[in-house]
Please model this.
Amino acid sequence: MSRSVLVTGGNRGIGLAIARSFAEAGDAVTVTHRGGEPPSGLSGVRCDVTDMSSVESAFDEVESTQGPVEVLVANAGITRDTLLLRMGEDEFTDVVDTNLTGAFRVAKRAAKGMLRARRGRVVFISSVVGLLGSPGQVNYAASKAGLVGMARSMARELGSRGITANVVAPGFVESDMTDELSDERREQILAEVPLGRYASADEVARVVRWVASDDAAYVTGAIIPVDGGLGMGH
Model:
């Protein structure tokens, strides 16, 4: 049965692969984007997750076209990498406001409809960095680690209403960003990954779609790594 799915930051990379995976399964999918045009074949809505009024407007538009959101994938995120002693307060707070507080804003708004329907799936896209840490990414790692506490608290708070909240934590994924790394850095990363390769965005998308499916109806408050074994034990 087709569901109403919203993927934040779904206009490129992992978010786009996730959105297309749901669409291919027959769901009605909308992606949020801050500028430009939505990806070909997908519905899009402008949304700035750092602005609650923008989030409210985006949800109102989605609800008017495809119904209340039944599956939310909170994927929107940014990076502002620099070493701790060089990191300004704006570089820290901007990343946390987008990646963590932004996820809170969209999850809170989605939960209203899910509570009325007594069902729903919330999937937060974290990162192996949020579990392992990474030099130069104090802000990003903090924001991604915070999603774990958020998801687990939501799982306890909303579980009695048939709503699940889970975290998918990708490792290094083939993308424009990793393509720009030097050969030396790519080799260093791969040496740390037991499977010896990067993930594809589609591999992450398939796990997200599974955790939002009926097959995972009894899975909530979980952290599901898609990292080739890089973060095992964390």
About this structure: Helices lie at 13-24, 52-66, 89-117, 129-132, 138-158, 176-179, 183-192, 201-211. Strands lie at 4-7, 28-33, 43-46, 71-74, 120-125, 163-170, 223-226.
